[in-house]
């Protein structure tokens, strides 16, 4: 799957927080937490790729576990 370079742009910490509709303080808390958003630090600045933030967010989607369980059961039945 190819990504359009403009669509998969890099965000600063402030831009990433705005993209996630959260504050930079919330993002700082997430960065130091047990399941931090994917990003990398360049000097004192954090950089986040849009596609990686989107994948990170997917784990918090309501019903994500149910979807996984249903897919596993369907795959097992199909064997």
Would you mind describing this structure in some detail?
The chain is 49% helix and 14% strand. By secondary structure, the protein is α+β, with helices and mostly antiparallel strands. The chain has one domain (10-78). A three-stranded antiparallel sheet has the order 1-3-2. A hairpin with a 2-residue loop joins β2 and β3 (45-49). The longest helix is centred in the last third of the chain and has 15 residues, at 64-78. It is elongated. The two termini are 27 Å apart. The model has no long low-confidence stretch (mean pLDDT 86).
Question: Could you provide a short overview of the structure?
Answer:
The chain has helices spanning 13-19, 24-31, 50-58, 64-78; strands at residues 10-12, 40-42, 45-49.
**Largest beta-sheet details:** 3 strands, antiparallel
Proportion of β residues?
5-15%
Cross-sheet strand order for the largest sheet: 1-3-2
Number of helical stretches of at least 4 residues: 4
Rg? 16 Å
Q: How many domains is the backbone divided into?
A: 1
- Taking the alpha carbons of the first and last residues, their distance comes to 27 Å
Shape: elongated
Order of helices and strands: EHHEEHH
Q: Count all strands and give the number.
A: 3
Oligomer: single chain
- The average pLDDT value, as a whole number, equals 86
Helix/strand-derived category reads alpha+beta
Q: What percent of the residues sit in helical stretches (DSSP H or I)? A: 40-55%
Low-confidence segments, given as residue ranges, are none
